[in-house]
Amino acid sequence: MIKNIIKNLKPSSTLLMNEESKKLEKEGKQIFKFGFGQSPFQIPEDMVNELKKNSHQNKYLPMQGLPELRDAVALYTSNKKGNNYKADNVIIGPGSKELMFLLHILFDGDVILPAPSWVSYAPQAIIGRNKVHWIETKRENNWFPTGEEIEKVISKNKNKNYLLFLNSPNNPSGQICENLDEIATVANKNNLIILSDEIYSELSFNTGFKSISNFCPEKTIISTGLSKWCGAGGWRLGYFIIPDSLKEIKNKLKVLASETFSSVSAPIQYAAISAYQNDHSSYIRNSSNILKNVGEYVYENLKSNNVIISKPKGGFYLMPEFVNKNFSTSSEMCKTILKDTGVALLPGSDFGCSEKKMLARLSFTDFDGSSFMNDIKKNKNIDLNSINNFAPKIIEGTKKLREWSESA
Question: pLDDT at position 288, please?
């Protein structure tokens, strides 16, 4: 009754962890929700007001997206990236995740995934019947593949098409790709398309974020949306920016969209125009500042001889490695951590890492973003006292995790 290709698939581990955490909380247990990555901040008020004003919009919109929204996205991205994108390069979807799924369905070739990679890339590739080539990355290279490693995969059959997923800032590592030029060189001389997942790009902790599209724009599909930078995950609005050189992909995405989601919710599309036309630089700066300081607090207080960890450079995540712990799998380790400490983490094996490596993804978003944001408007300096006042579960959960890492 169930297709063989689907039988072995499991629900997304991030969503499962969120549900498990809520279940344990209902049972009265104190849970530190370091497993589910979701923005702790409220959606900017001007966007909420626009949604209210447009709640009457009840017509199906063009399958590629509302023209005014695509215009706003194209202009915003062109100014950010220094490229000349037009509205026709933009396709709006019900979250970037759905657009990625449709890309897997239409793509004829092999998929290259760095390990670690976001949990849904590989299952979507399996559903799309695409062969996956994993590249095991190293901490020394910020958990991103080198150009040489990518070319080694391609060299086995240069006649094939290849699709590389590059997520920077990265989920789960919190790192930023710094060798974009060498990856672009490989892409430009091979049948390699890059899906640049930039959903966390607005939350880079340092200015001057660089996209792979700055190095090979004609080979790069940019994927992003509203969920991370403005706390609108539940709105389910994402988009692809597809260059003219890949218009065949865009046209077939439109066909698949017409047969699947038809078009994204009309009120949300109208409201989203304000996300790209209005000035949200202060909101983004404040939220990034909070995340940077909270993330660095966890990093400074967790790193030790027992825990190898890299300082976060953007987004919500850290990827600690518990070097003094011996479990059969990282999944078993995370179940033990949850049982012993109440700290919910995701195992590195969910992201394509070897299950024998005691790696885990830690999301440092278990705090009240609204209160923290209101405080930072009055006082831009974020010190230990601020983190203690507005992110107490981060402090307590980090302490419990460190004590567990030091236990015999």
Answer: 94
Q: Which of 243-257, 324-338, 352-366, 387-401 has the lowest mean pLDDT?
A: 324-338
| 3-state DSSP assignment of residue 298 | helix
Of 217, 225, 245, the C-alpha closest to 65 is 225
All structural domains of the chain, each given as residue ranges with its CATH number in brackets, are 4-43+281-406 (3.90.1150.10), 46-277 (3.40.640.10)
Q: Is 109 within 8 Å of 161 (Cβ atoms)?
A: yes
- pTM (global) more than 0.85: yes
Range 66-82 burial, b when 16+ CB lie within 10 A, else e: beebbbbbbeebeebbe
| 293 within 8 A of 275, measured Cβ to Cβ | no
Interior angle at CA 334, CA 333 and CA 337, nearest 5: 90
The mean of the pLDDT values for the chain is 93
Calpha distance 284→298 (Å, rounded): 21
